[in-house]
Amino acid sequence: MAGGPGTTNNSDNSNERESRFSVPQWARPGDGPSERIGWRTLLRRRRLLWAVVAVVVLVAVWNNYPFIPNLWTLLFSQPSGVASAESGPGQWAMRGGSPQGTNFSPFTFVPEGIVERAIEVDTGIRSSPVAADGVVYIGGQSRMLAIDADTGQQIWEQPVSGPAHGVPALADGSLFLGTLNKRVIALDARSGRRLWEYVGDSPFPGTVAVQDGIVYAGSRGGDVHAIDASSGDQLWKVGLKSAAVAPVAVHDGKMFAASSAGILFIRHSGTGDKRARIRTNSALVSPPTVADGRVYLLLDGSLLAFDSNIRELPGRYASELIWAQLWVWGFPLPSPAEHSGLLWRLQPGNDVGAFLHTPAVTGEALYLGTGAGEVVALDPENGDILWQLSLGEPIAAPVIAAGNVLLVAQENGAIRAIDRYSQEELWKVSLESPVAGPLGYAEGRVFAHTQDGKMYVIR
């Protein structure tokens, strides 16, 4: 009797300890190899899952790492202002009218075709004018001039430390210009006082662009310098491997820089990080134009339109170069694609002459002049010709779209105004000499610098 209860208690304690300290199923005596195999299978499956996840992550990083902005530059090399050379009412702020280079002003105060005055400037001046608030600015042989557009009187003259043949850029009350003696200079637009001078390592022969507080200056040595518009300090510099075709175009967080070697570089406008490269088969001599998700390039008289949002995956550019070279050498390969991101191409031929200058881009059409003396309107979606108008003499400068009017300069010194909807000629002015560069347009006036050293004001 006494032993019965004791025996029962020991058994209960043993069962309690066993349940409290249970041994894994696979380690218990009597468990067969099938249970061990199941556990190993589960381990293998987990390892395989993690391997797949790792591969997916690596592919995502590989594809997107080139498009992640440099955090160090974003944090510590940002401009201290927001100046932009955008043409507002009464302004023509830089070559092409804006950092996008569209040669378009939506303001519809149309000139009447009356020559107000011809201002003697300098036969050595190769620059073209910009204008704002009734003042015209033009650079030249080691000097910058500010002229009252109403009276023709000089407001100020400022010596600069080298020939300035590019079109100056006007932004936030300051003028910015590059010179042939390796300088980029900022002047106060009101007084001509020098604000800062940036020294590079090769000449800056063309126009600078200004957007979001950054001055973008392309050099003959093959670099684009990003300079703080407020201080003149260098923010960053990127190489193009050949001379930059100025100005660059800046739009939607991207910088578009053409090189003389025939490559269009697309980079992050705030950091200079790579986005894409578009390789052409010929040297580029005209700057890019960007609008509405498309970037336009002139190439051997043709006009090409590319997707401005193209991204270059790692290794694509190098593989395309190898493919193209092997194909040229006669290897049995399919012919390489013409250009990545190409939307359309319009080549000169029987229907249209060679395009010589960057287009004017409006919401519904592109307008270009040709070497055969034509003005051509194109559909930006597909490059189809909407209309063309023959004017006889070759077109000498980019066409400007000012409201509903096209302003066209020809090599015989004629400047014409054409209704861009009806193609009717509104007026024609004959100057004594052909223009020396792009026209300017502001406050209903046309500004034309001619090869004989005069600047004409046409209202």
UniProtKB/TrEMBL annotation:
<dbReference type="InterPro" id="IPR015943">
    <property type="entry name" value="WD40/YVTN_repeat-like_dom_sf"/>
</dbReference>
<keyword id="KW-0472">Membrane</keyword>
<keyword id="KW-0812">Transmembrane</keyword>
<protein>
    <submittedName>
        <fullName>Outer membrane protein assembly factor BamB</fullName>
    </submittedName>
</protein>
<dbReference type="InterPro" id="IPR011047">
    <property type="entry name" value="Quinoprotein_ADH-like_sf"/>
</dbReference>
<dbReference type="InterPro" id="IPR011044">
    <property type="entry name" value="Quino_amine_DH_bsu"/>
</dbReference>
<feature type="region of interest" description="Disordered">
    <location>
        <begin position="1"/>
        <end position="31"/>
    </location>
</feature>
<dbReference type="InterPro" id="IPR002372">
    <property type="entry name" value="PQQ_rpt_dom"/>
</dbReference>
<feature type="domain" description="Pyrrolo-quinoline quinone repeat">
    <location>
        <begin position="121"/>
        <end position="202"/>
    </location>
</feature>
<dbReference type="Pfam" id="PF13360">
    <property type="entry name" value="PQQ_2"/>
</dbReference>
<dbReference type="InterPro" id="IPR018391">
    <property type="entry name" value="PQQ_b-propeller_rpt"/>
</dbReference>
<feature type="transmembrane region" description="Helical">
    <location>
        <begin position="48"/>
        <end position="65"/>
    </location>
</feature>
<feature type="domain" description="Pyrrolo-quinoline quinone repeat">
    <location>
        <begin position="221"/>
        <end position="394"/>
    </location>
</feature>
<keyword id="KW-1133">Transmembrane helix</keyword>
